[in-house]
Recover the amino acids of this structure.
């Protein structure tokens, strides 16, 4: 291999490593937002919830930086085959991670509406659901940085547990609202929180599929999801 080619490959690898670092930083912020928004919800921390909302701007700024790096990488390095696959996957992943941050921000935005809400049994399930989704985000970004297809698959396998939590919470909240109509407003907010967590799990799984494809060149087998009893955007 000519020295010029070696230099080009080295430069590309350095660019890619820097890009992975930015995306990993995005994942860290998104994971923190999930955990912190749930802490604020359970502890009725209005100031902390406001901080989660404001911190979403950092994630948005990193998304712009990551997209700039990817476009520059493709334009200047003209990657082929595996490298091009990874660049395209990275472009998709940054958008999904930013969306995960938005869902966490949406949870934080509901904290003021639940400040005076009485404690209801389904709330006890939300922290565990949030813990699983935050771990999925953490692990799938690790899989991306490590190009670990097996780890990406393990993230997908946990999505069923998140769906099961959502279905249980939905049924419990529906029963609660039927028994106490005065609780409908607060219970609806909690339903939106559960739905946001369920969507975060879906997005983590989508990233896992992109990581798997970037690492192997193959599509991951189609996953089976449980029935979602309600659609809440």
């Amino acid at each position: 291999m000519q020295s010029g080619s070696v230099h080009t490959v080295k430069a590309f690898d350095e660019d890619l490593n820097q890009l992975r670092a930015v995306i990993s930083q995005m994942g860290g912020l998104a994971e923190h937002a999930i955990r912190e928004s749930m802490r604020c919800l359970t502890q009725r921390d209005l100031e902390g919830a406001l901080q989660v909302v404001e911190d979403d701007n950092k994630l948005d700024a990193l998304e712009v930086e990551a997209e700039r790096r990817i476009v520059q990488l493709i334009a200047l390095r003209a990657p082929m085959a595996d490298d091009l696959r990874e660049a395209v996957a990275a472009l998709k992943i940054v958008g999904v991670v930013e969306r995960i941050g938005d869902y966490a921000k949406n949870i934080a935005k509901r904290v003021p509406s639940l400040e005076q809400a009485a404690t209801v049994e389904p709330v006890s399930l939300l922290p565990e659901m949030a813990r699983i989704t935050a771990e999925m985000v953490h692990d799938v970004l690790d899989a991306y940085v490590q190009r670990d297809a097996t780890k990406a698959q393990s993230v997908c396998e946990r999505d069923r547990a998140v769906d099961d939590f959502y279905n249980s919470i939905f049924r419990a909240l529906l029963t609660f609202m039927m028994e106490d109509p005065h609780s409908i407003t607060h219970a609806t907010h909690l339903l939106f929180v559960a739905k946001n967590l369920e969507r975060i799990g879906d997005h983590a799984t989508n990233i896992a599929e992109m990581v798997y494809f970037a690492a192997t060149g193959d599509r991951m087998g189609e996953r089976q999801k449980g029935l979602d009893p309600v659609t809440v955007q």
